From TrEMBL, chain A:
Location(s), subcellular: Cell membrane
Protein name listed in UniProt: ABC transporter permease
Residues of the ABC transmembrane type-1 domain: 94-295
Statement: the UniProt record of this protein carries the keyword RNA-binding: no
Annotated organism of origin: Teichococcus aerophilus
Record's keyword terms, sorted: Cell membrane, Membrane, Transmembrane, Transmembrane helix, Transport
Keyword Transmembrane helix among UniProt keywords: yes
TrEMBL record, chain B:
Originating organism: Teichococcus aerophilus
Entry's localization field: Cell inner membrane
Residues in the signal sequence: none
Keyword entries, A-Z: ATP-binding, Cell membrane, Membrane, Nucleotide-binding, Transport
ABC transporter domain segment(s): 5-250
Record-given protein name: ABC transporter ATP-binding protein
Length: 308, 325
């Protein structure tokens, strides 16, 4: 177990390191922050001074080493825009993002998994088809389209809910639904196919043959097995709690991490972008490790694989 | 003696394609019956249909009576009261027939709770006794094993223990040894036979392996394309099969004595269930077939007491090896 964990942690650190490196290279190659942050007609001496102040005049290799060294000391750099620590800027935005993504995640799980189980248990019935058609619609419509549609109906036409901003819980409703719908649809489809796969297994017939009621067969024999593949998808959704809201936050002018990212990329605010990417990579990797541990909990076959 | 199970004209079709075409059969308490035939001949379907375990698209007709209770079309509650308690079933591949996420002991205890109301320590103690009975070594520790930690033979013993938990009057063993090594096969068959004798429980052994059935059963049903073509005491069938299909099956067995010879296969293939020949389904492959065989399905007739065959030209006298030549 300890060996398993340390291997996983080492791999996680490597993944994060790669993400950081990749982000660093792409950002430095894709435009000069000095020219973007200073205006285009700024005097060349001022631009040169800016470059020197942020170390942009150094060779790329040196910049990378000092950047990486700082990260290892917990220093994620300062925003080039307002000079505050990048981590502080990002941390301020995290609660706003979580206020959308956590309820959306609950919606995805709370609707998607029961809908998938229901569809599987009523396979090929009218209800199964209805659920699946809704699900296909749910994940083929891009979230910005769904978001705009909801704004058009509930904000513009009906005037029930605000179209954007962050003044209270009512402002969160449309963005949460926009985000939750697609995920619920994905989970519904995934849960359905996982359930169907499990319901076709010989041990389900064994359980029925020994006199277990169908309800108990589903609850006690099918669900624990179908949970194994479903956890993968849920884990992926948990991993994107921080970064999954980029589009929706932009559509609804919600001041979260996603919108900060969009603005920071546009401004080439390198430290902020890198800080967000680092956090995203870290949450994703953490979620993956948790999923792996959960596999072991759910599936005894994997547990003994870990021991070996 | 009144039969334990009595089937009359049991038929099953899937989306209009027949899988079982009218099977009639009596099983008496404590009897060992073998059902042989190729895959798809309807031997497993018979019992899955009787216990209501087929998918919803299967259409079942005819009658299956268990001690006076009709099972075909019976409400779910009736069937759940029969499954595992009156009639238990074990399956071909024990590794996939046991739930991978539950400990084997718990799976046996579930049956004990359902059928005998045992819980907690009492259920565990009884599960342990059953494990001992079916010959699982170190039973106390094995209760906590997961299916993937046990060998195929041990998993099949767990399945048998689980089947015995409900103290059934009939155990249906569907190809119980097919997925196992030959040496383990013999042990499992001996175990099934011993349990049947000790508990006076009836046993139906479904197999495509004539050797397996010969050792264990008193009476054998030979099935072909959803029908019983011959029904005979095991000894009589192996000494002198009457139906040409049964003759062909026996001729395909390697002889234990004498010089090594080429095995004789039955020519041709099992017909497509959706496009059956007009008369006897075996006629296109049958060396004895004549034009009258295509006129209609040959009726079953009694050759001698306990011996029924559905053939116009039963090959009664010739020994299997002569048939082969």
């Amino acid at each position: 177990m300890l060996r398993f964990l340390s291997i996983r942690l080492l791999r996680a650190a490597l993944t994060i390191g790669l993400v950081v490196t990749f982000a660093f290279i792409v950002l430095r190659m894709s435009g000069d922050p000095a020219l973007l942050i200073m205006s285009a007609d700024a005097p060349p001496e001022a631009v040169a001074a800016f470059r020197k102040a942020w170390g942009l005049d150094e060779p790329l290799w040196n910049q990378y080493l000092s950047y990486f060294g700082a990260i290892l000391h917990g220093d994620l750099g300062q925003s080039m825009r307002d000079g505050r620590p990048a981590i502080q800027l990002v941390a301020e935005r995290i609660p706003a993002t979580l206020a959308l993504t956590v309820p959306a995640l609950i919606m995805k799980i709370g609707i998607g998994i029961p809908a998938g189980i229901f569809a599987a248990l009523h396979r090929n019935s009218f209800l199964d088809r209805a659920v699946m058609i809704t699900a296909v619609a749910g994940f083929t419509v891009p979230s910005f389209v769904l978001g705009l549609l909801l704004v058009l109906v509930f904000a513009v036409q009906l005037g029930w809910l605000p179209s954007g901003g962050q003044e209270g819980w009512r402002h969160a409703i449309l963005p949460i639904i926009t985000m939750g719908a697609g995920g619920a649809a994905v989970l519904a489809r995934f849960t359905r196919s996982a359930m169907l796969e499990v319901l076709g297994q010989p041990y389900i017939r064994t359980a029925s043959a020994k006199g277990v009621s169908w309800r108990a067969v589903v609850r006690h024999h099918a669900l624990p097995n179908a949970a194994i593949p479903t956890v993968t998808i849920v884990g992926f959704m948990v991993g994107s709690l921080l970064a999954g809201a980029v589009v929706v936050e932009s559509v609804f002018s919600w001041p979260g991490v996603g919108r900060l990212l969009v603005v920071a990329v546009a401004n080439r605010d390198l430290a902020v972008v890198q800080c967000i990417l680092l956090l995203v990579a870290a949450t994703m990797v953490t979620a993956n490790i948790v999923v792996d541990l959960l596999y072991g909990f759910l599936d005894p076959r994997l547990r003994s694989g870990v021991k070996a | 003696m009144a039969p334990l199970v009595s089937m009359r004209g049991l038929a099953v079709d899937f989306d209009g394609v027949p899988a079982l075409r009218g099977l009639s059969l009596d099983i008496h308490p404590g009897e060992a019956l073998g059902m042989v035939g190729e895959s798809g001949c309807g031997k497993s379907v018979t019992w899955l249909a009787a216990l209501g375990l087929l998918p919803a698209k299967a259409r079942i007709s005819g009658s299956v009576k268990l001690g006076g209770t009709e099972l075909v079309g019976a409400p779910t509650a009736t069937l759940e009261g029969v499954r595992g308690r009156k009639v238990a079933m074990i399956f071909q591949d024990p590794a996939s027939a046991l739930n991978p996420v539950h400990r084997v002991g718990k799976q046996v205890e579930e049956a004990l709770r359902l059928h005998r109301g045992l819980r907690g320590g009492a259920a565990r103690a009884e599960a342990r006794r059953l494990f001992d009975q079916v010959g699982i070594p170190d039973a106390g520790r094995r209760l906590d094993a997961w299916p993937h930690e046990l060998s195929g033979g041990q998993n099949q013993r767990v399945m048998i223990a689980m089947a015995l938990a409900g103290q059934p009057e009939l155990l249906v063993a569907d190809e119980p040894t097919t997925a196992l090594d030959v040496t383990i096969q013999a042990q499992i068959l001996e175990l099934l036979d011993a349990i049947r004798r000790e508990q006076n429980m009836a046993l139906v052994l479904i197999s495509h392996d004539l050797g397996v059935v010969a050792e264990t059963c008193d009476r054998v049903l030979v099935m072909y394309t959803g029908r019983v073509v011959e029904q005979a005491p095991a000894r009589a069938l192996f000494d002198a099969p009457a139906h040409p299909y049964a003759c062909g099956l026996l001729a395909a067995l390697p002889p234990l004595e004498g010089p090594r010879e080429r095995l004789v296969a039955i020519p041709g293939q099992v017909p497509d269930p959706a496009r059956m020949p007009p008369g006897c389904a075996f006629a296109p492959r049958c060396p004895q077939a004549g034009p009258d065989c295509d006129a209609g399905v040959p009726p079953s007739h009694v050759l001698e007491p306990g011996r029924v065959v559905a053939c116009l030209r039963p090959a009664y006298a010739p020994r299997p090896r002569e048939y082969a030549l």
